[in-house]
Amino acid sequence: YVLALRQNNDRIAEAALTKLAALKVPSRFIEQLKRSRIVSPQVTFYAPQSGVVEQLNIREGMFVQPGNTLISIGDLSSVWVEGEVFESDANVIALGDQVLMTLDFHPGKKWLGKVNYIYPTLDPKTRTVRVRVEFNNKEMQLKPNMFAQLVIKPQLDAAALVVPREAVIRTGNQDRVVLALDEGSFKSVAVTLGRKTRDYFEVLDGLNEGEKIVVSAQFLIDSESSKTSDFMRMSQLDNKPNQVWVAGKINSVSSGERKVNADHDPIDVWEWPAMTMDFKVDESVDVSSLSSGTELHMQISKQDDGEYVITSVHIMSAGEHKSSVQSATVDGEVKSINHASGIATIHRGAIEKWGRGPATIEFKSDPESIVHSLKEGQRIRITFEIRDGEFVITKLHNQENNNDSAHH
């Protein structure tokens, strides 16, 4: 640059000046060089900002190459604080939300800031979303790597139905609130909760605005209510049948103990979901016909001791799927009829195509009028289907007078 100035070569001088600027040579040094046209053996570089030295990677006599970091300086007059928000709360956080921060370092002091960035990814281990908040730190009380507590105040526009946190009874399966009714009576109701604050829960379903709720001793009331409900459920179980037919699949067989492990479909009449259970196998069932992977319909009977036993089975033929509709025509004799439930107990003959011998089975009918037209002791010929584990009569071919009465 000095050589170009001495030769009055403006083009080279401009190019040299551009290179000096690219090397971050201070402008004050370039101005001095331009005036004196004398090259100094030392150049003083100034930090672009004031702050705290975080890293010092240069020593006297070192050779410096482009890309080397000589010194790292942090400006702490304004700092970023990163917070973690639970996944369930992340949907209500927005840019510009006010944030209240406290630190154990300075008890009692509060800092106010705003959310200025929400990170786009979720931490898979902690299931949290990071947010960034900027705070003024002119007093230099906030120091890097400190722990802080952040309280974010979302800007919520829509009104919400809320209840005090202490009014909610939280269990592993359900959240409940106790309603205060007239004349000193109470009722425990299930609720669906939404967002939460330090003092309140949002209620999405289960309560209406203006209803009175219990916020003290509700655990005792709910406990008593649960006992009453349990007794009611026990009394309802007494009216349920002791035998049901259900589709299932054998997982394993213990022939010596006459036990099997099986998957079964839901049993609505017992309010059972689909489950995997261990069953005893009754002496009347050929346990050797059961093996791992066998798909079948099985009759499950509840014994007096509370144990569940497989008392009859229908094994599906090759290629037959348990969800398909199966039907057969067979002769039989009516043993009993329960008109209230629409069930007839019929001793049917053998079904050769299924390889099944005679058996006494409970039948429903579609329509129900078929069952109601039967009489105890009557000899009949029926066509039936297996629907969701139940035996359903679809056609009554004849009664004792051999008339062909078809019902569809």
Word description of this protein:
- The protein is mostly beta strands and 408 residues long.
- 13% of the residues lie in helices and 40% in strands.
- It has five helices and 22 strands.
- The chain has helices at 2-6, 10-22, 27-36, 218-238, 369-372; strands spanning 52-56, 71-74, 78-86, 98-102, 111-123, 128-136, 149-153, 162-164, 169-170, 175-180, 186-196, 200-205, 243-254, 259-264, 275-281, 295-302, 308-315, 326-338, 343-348, 359-365, 379-387, 390-398.
- It has a five-stranded antiparallel sheet with strand order 3-6-5-4-7, with no helix packed on it.
- It is elongated.
- Residues 227-235, 319-324 and 400-408 have low confidence and may be disordered.
How many beta strands in the DSSP annotation? 22
Q: Tell the overall outline.
A: elongated
Tell me the major beta sheet.
5 strands, antiparallel
| Class from helix and strand fractions | mainly beta
Major beta sheet, strand line-up: 3-6-5-4-7
Distance between the termini: 107 Å
**What's the pLDDT, averaged over the residues?**
82
Count the helices. How many?
A: 5
User: What is the helix content?
Assistant: 10-25%
Cα radius of gyration in angstroms: 41 Å
pLDDT under 50 segments (min length 5)?
A: 227-235, 319-324, 400-408
Oligomer: single chain
The secondary-structure element order is: HHHEEEEEEEEEEEEHEEEEEEEEHEE
Quote the beta fraction: 35-45%
